[in-house]
Amino acid sequence: MDIRPLTDDYAVSPQIAPTDVAAIAEAGFTTLVCNRPDGEIPPEVQADAIRAAAEAAGLHFVLNPVIGGAISMDNVTAQADAMQASTGPVLAYCASGNRSSIVWALAHAGTRPTDELIAIPARHGYGLEPFRATLDQLAQG
Question: Origin, by domain of life (predicted)?
Fold first, then answer.
């Protein structure tokens, strides 16, 4: 498990396993967001398996599958809703953490400078520069 904090209350991770969930809860996360569609992965790490482990560990689980290259505003809204509803830190995961970073940045467009929304994920190797125009457009609202 490779947790990469973007802020004090939001981190991203590559794919997790049910056996990782107890450590996620122990690390202080209260909400777990799955941004990975089940069609990409084997059954043992699909959303239902992670949800069962999350609920057993007392975490709130949110399913918001993000398809690479086809991120929708529904994905952005669902991610924003999950972050706002969380009673503590959020961990979002996908294949690498990139899609979880993108929906975080898009959800914060207009609340933080675009340069910052690109630079924060870049510290962990996520390249959001192609989303600059979209971030700027969303910020204009």
Answer: Bacteria
Strand partners, 66: none
Give the pLDDT score at 68: 82
Among 20, 19, 27, which residue's Cα sits nearest to residue 11? 27
Low-confidence ranges of the chain (pLDDT < 70): none
Q: Which helix (H) or strand (E) holds 30?
A: none
Rounded to whole angstroms, how far apart are CA atoms 129 and 18?
A: 32
Specify the pLDDT at position 1.
81
- What does the alpha-carbon distance between residue 49 and residue 28 come to, in Å, rounded to a whole number? 21
| pLDDT confidence of residue 55 | 96
Q: Note if the pTM is more than 0.70.
A: yes
CA distance 55 to 71: 27
* For helices 98-107 and 114-122, angle between their N-to-C axes, nearest 10 degrees: 160
Name the average pLDDT for the chain: 95
Helix (H, G, I), strand (E, B) or coil at 90: strand
Q: In order of start, what are the domains of the chain with their CATH numbers?
A: 4-107 (3.90.190.10)
Q: Which of 34, 88, 94, 44 is nearest to 64 (CA)?
A: 34
